Structures are given as structure tokens and as C-alpha cells.
Fold:
Amino acid sequence: GAVVSQHPSRVICKSGTSVKIECRSLDFQATTMFWYRQFPKQSLMLMATSNEGSKATYEQGVEKDKFLINHASLTLSTLTVTSAHPEDSSFYICSATGTVQETQYFGPGTRLLVL
Amino acid sequence: DAKTTQPPSMDCAEGRAANLPCNHSTISGNEYVYWYRQIHSQGPQYIIHGLKNNETNEMASLIITEDRKSSTLILPHATLRDTAVYYCIVLNAGGTSYGKLTFGQGTILTVHP
Structure:
């Protein structure tokens, strides 16, 4: 299957700082990337959908000014958690789908801890 | 997207076949059935998907009933490494919901020695 990477795998930051998470498709071009969040003992929740070269579409209840998404190329999307607070601590996971593929392939996830 | 119903948990002995059921009675004609699994603290892993025909790959087999209202994921020879949460998801292949996966609670499969 296709390979998707995320960086960093784990990050600890102070409250009020911003954190950037990268999502890369390593062996295919991803026209669409998705960002999910997963709290402990819960399922994945879709946060936003990003298409290369256009603005992301956010799910209801997700603040677009807090979770900035950039999808500037066919292999890279970034999620920036601005002014992070302890309640933003979670497991952030991206997925990607290519131009001719419908299957979403997921990254390994980024665990964010805000102190 | 059509909702899916899965048992919350299942057990399987190592080396035996694991059969994970999924009900999707409101599935539409152009909606695919996808299966993913998530091992603890990792991102979901794609397993298999199908529309109406049974499918098989190196990981598993997917059996879809003729009326498409239910399906079964079969892991032919379960190993301890197959212990994970298994998600059955119905995906619309077009329209405004294109590509969106809605994760339910899935089935926690525990493979024991």
C-alpha cells in the first residue's frame, strides 16, 4: 500500500505556543489529505479536508483559525495548532488519497501534549 | 454515508480464522465497504474494500452479502499481531462526501495464544 509519513511523531509544548505537524505522501501524489483527531479511548474524528492548492474545508465545530491547514504541494500538508492549550492534547492523524486512488492511507500519527 | 454496526469486541485463538461481521443495512448502490484496523497508538491501516463482489488480498478476505446489507472480514490465520480495533466503514465514492471516512467504535479483536 501507499506510504504516508508524519512529523513529528510526538511533541510536548507549553500552553500558548504553536505547533506544526507535517504530513507527507511518500510514493504517490495526494490531491486530497484529511486531518483527524483522536482522544483517548475514542474513535477518530475528522477535522478537515484539504485539497492541493485550495483552502481546507473544516468539519462543524472545528475552529479554522486555530487549526491552520496548508496543502501547498501534492505530497505535503501541514496542520498548525495555534495557541495550543491543554485541551488540544490529542493524537493527530493525517490521511491521503491520490488522483486515481480512492483508498485513504493513513500516517502513523502525532501525539501532542500541551502542558 | 450509511451507518455501520459492529460487535464491540471479539476473541480469536491464534492460528484460527477471525470472522468479523458488519451490518450496513442502509448502504446505497454506489457506496463501498472499507475495512481498516488500528493497532494501539498507531494510525489506521487499510485492509480491504469492496463494492459488491467478494474480495481477497494478502491480508484478508471480504465477503459481502448479495443484498449488500452486511459483510464479513475474514483473517484466515490470526496471529497475536492482528490484535487491534477493526473498523468497517461505508464510503460514498462521489458527491460532497467524497472520500470522507466516518469512524465508529469498531470491533476490538483480541487474538490469544
